[in-house]
Design a protein that fits this description.
The protein is of the alpha/beta class. It has 10 helices and 8 strands. The chain has a single domain, classed as Rossmann fold, CATH 3.40.50.300. Helices cover 44% and strands 17% of the residues. Helix 1 packs across helix 10 and helix 8 crosses helix 9.
Length: 245
């Protein structure tokens, strides 16, 4: 990788495939900034809920779009918890955006072209304004649409069973023992996969120059080790690997 320019690492993939976990580990290891675009879409869904946008069967985004022009996102590293906190209009909403009500609405928000346009503009502004040597971004369309010139593109996938189980464990660790059953989680992930891959605007799709990681049988630590090796290979101008495992 070019040491004299800002390096962008794009991580795309399916719901609950471990994109955020890998992205945060890479950003910490390389001391890069981290942008979680999924958190941004979730925060828009949260704001839509708070503004009662979904209270009618005839809901649309017409009256909601102006609100987005005043929206403010911030990512801050939490040294105590060793993770990235997410702020919506100066309020930490990291836990709120992972709630059941937000999860059930975020795919609807992500399908609205105008919202995607606004958030894509915000993401690109983040990228321009970052002053340090690099950024790790995770999402659904970073490598294909948002920043196709990314120096390294990774596409995450895994079996529906393992993705559902990992998500179930994550919710349990947060104390949400009664919020979801395993079957509910699996059904929701399948629904989001279908919504993400079938939407007309910026569908989830692996770019031709992405490196694929199927992490069905990989730990987060093993994934990080593999990606760091790929980065080292790129630095040394060796041939790119098209699929890690």
């Amino acid at each position: 990788m070019n040491q004299n320019k800002k390096t962008i690492i794009a991580i795309d993939g399916y719901s609950s495939s471990g994109k955020s976990t890998l992205a945060q580990k890479i950003s910490k290891e390389l001391k890069f900034n981290y942008i979680d675009t999924g958190a941004m879409y979730r925060s828009v869904a949260l704001l839509a809920i708070q503004k009662n946008v979904f209270n009618s069967d005839l809901w649309n985004s017409t009256n909601f779009i102006p609100i987005l022009k005043e929206i403010n996102f911030q990512f801050k590293w939490n040294k105590i918890l060793n993770k990235t906190d997410f702020f919506l209009n100066k309020k930490n909403v990291l836990h709120e955006i992972r709630s059941k009500r937000v999860t059930n609405k975020v795919s609807l928000i992500a399908r609205i072209p105008k919202i995607r346009d606004i958030l894509t503009t915000i993401i690109k502004k983040f990228i321009r304004n970052v002053s340090n040597k690099g950024i790790v971004i995770d999402g659904r369309d970073i490598g294909n649409i948002v920043y196709p010139q990314s120096e390294l593109k990774i596409f995450m996938t895994g079996s529906i069973e393992i993705r559902s189980y990992r998500r179930f464990q994550e919710i349990q660790k947060r104390g949400g023992l009664n919020s979801y059953s395993y079957e509910e989680i699996k059904k929701n992930i399948l629904y989001r996969d279908r919504m993400d891959t079938s939407r007309k605007i910026s569908p989830l799709k692996k770019s031709l120059d992405s490196i694929e990681i199927d992490n069905t049988f990989l730990s987060p630590e093993k994934q990080l080790t593999l990606v760091l090796k790929v980065i080292e290979n790129i630095k040394n101008n060796r041939k790119k690997i098209k699929k890690i495992i």
